[in-house]
Design a protein that fits this description.
single chain; nine-stranded mixed beta sheet; 13 strands
């Protein structure tokens, strides 16, 4: 383990060139860390992951999120530590953060505005903690598309999601596995969700209305899960709903024959499903417009800049030509003045000579 005192001793023994190279990589740590966190930052490995700047602080017995990492870090690995709480300002300086691993800690509480600055966060793993509630603002993060929230048995997920709706994050993957869920949460209208993992919830209540608002679901991971229904026929209604829409899932163990059931879907579920599809079409249209408008605007700006540069260049050329013309005109005038004065001088010289003789 490298300590600050050892680092200073090592620096004294190095050549000046090598010292400068090391100082380049460590100076920002020494300037931003207090003594309590200096060793922590030096032990976090700075690396590049898929072209993004990363910090690997895996299993360092940390009790809080370090404040001495580079402010432009994009991936932070904090798994298998001893973090118990995330405070309001713990993440404020890492506004470029895209991937954050906080799994296998002892996190119980997250301050309400702890994730407020995480507008670029795309993947968040908070699995295997002791959270008593889902962190506020998580479902409103504008870039979040993967959320891992398994093995948090102390959280009332159904109630928390109900209080945090509507979900505005563009979630594509949501993991709620092994949370001892008694009931499947109603996510509301969430057209972006493609993968829903509820594995390991031993005895969970389900119905079709919980899936009506996730109209683009492709995979339902329900291994090691026993579903129960208020009405046994609801089991077949849900199976048929998922099969018709091409969802991959582990079949439910329906307790009655399908022939004895009315498998008609309620009008309200169909209306929610259609609302989800409308929202999805609007999102697709917005993305297409964004993909078209931004390049067009950039191209127009570049073209306008080129036109301005051409106009400026033409004006400069005209000014240069005009300047050269003025210079040539003034030279001609000077020459003409000189030619007019020469005969006068010659005439004067002739008169002087005549008078002399």
């Amino acid at each position: 383990m490298i300590t600050c005192s050892k680092l200073i001793l090592q620096l004294r023994s190095l050549t000046s060139l090598r010292m400068l190279m090391i100082l380049k990589n460590t100076l920002f740590l020494l300037l931003t860390c207090n003594l309590a966190y200096c060793d922590t930052c030096l032990n976090c490995k700075q690396n590049q992951v898929h072209g993004m700047r990363g910090a690997d602080c895996y299993s360092l017995d940390l009790e809080r999120i370090p404040q001495c990492l580079r402010s432009d870090v994009e991936i932070v690995e904090l798994s298998h530590n001893r973090i118990r709480r995330i405070l309001q300002d713990d993440l404020n300086r890492y506004t470029n953060l895209k991937i954050l691993y906080l799994d296998d800690n002892m996190i119980m509480n997250v301050d309400e505005s702890a994730f407020k600055s995480m507008t670029s966060l795309e993947i968040l793993d908070m699995s295997s903690n002791s959270l008593v509630k889902i962190p506020p603002l998580v479902f409103q993060l504008p870039s979040l598309y993967k959320l891992y929230f398994s093995h948090n048995q102390y959280t009332n997920i159904v109630e928390d999601i109900e209080n945090l709706k509507p979900i505005t994050s563009p979630l594509e993957y949501l993991e709620l596995a092994f949370n001892d869920l008694a009931e499947l949460p109603n996510l509301g209208v969430l057209p972006t969700l493609l993968y829903f993992n509820i594995s390991g919830n031993a005895y969970i209540k389900m119905n079709t209305s919980k899936f009506a608002g996730i109209c683009n679901l492709k995979f339902l991971y329900n291994n090691n899960t026993t579903a129960w229904f208020d009405d046994p026929c609801d089991c077949w209604i849900l199976e048929m709903w998922l099969e018709i829409r091409g969802v991959k899932f582990h079949p439910f163990n329906c307790q009655v024959d399908i022939e004895s059931c009315n498998t008609t879907v309620t009008v309200s579920d169909i209306q929610i499903f259609e609302e989800c599809h409308r929202n999805y079409k609007e999102l697709v249209m917005q993305n297409r417009i964004r993909k078209i408008v931004i390049p067009v605007c950039v191209a127009a700006a570049v073209l306008l800049l080129i036109i301005i540069l051409i106009i400026i260049a033409k004006k400069r050329r005209k000014l240069k030509k005009l300047k050269r013309k003025n210079i040539a005109t003034s030279e001609e005038e000077n020459n003409s003045d000189n030619t007019h004065h020469v005969p006068d001088c010659v005439y004067c010289s002739c008169l002087i000579l005549q008078n002399t003789f």
